Amino acid sequence: xxxxxxxxxxxxxxxxxxxxxxxxxxxxxxxxxxxxxxxxxxxxxxxxxxxxxxxxxxxxxxxxxxxxxxxxxxxxxxxxxxxxxxxxxxxxxxxxxxxxxxxxxxxxxxxxxxxxxxxxxxxxx
Length: 125
Fold this sequence. Notes:
The chain is 18% helix and 31% strand.
């Protein structure tokens, strides 16, 4: 029945910082978004599907919504991404998964959402 993940949605407390993080640091691209009657952005990776929706100008729900621990993206060019993070000052935890060897970079976005970037085990730092 389910054929794939569609998208995650983040309520952005700071539009600029959030866009800088996801587009500048992670390399997602702002793309087509229909007029939904409120401000926001849809962000795209390498494919035609928006993977992240952002809400702007909406209050963060109290208590904060959901129980999802984190969002994970498949990524490439570990060495380049690590250098970007090192230059940005954004704190991260980089580890190699036991067994599979997948490289996992964990960080928090400007809104406190946990983000995981997964890189192939063959990549070198």
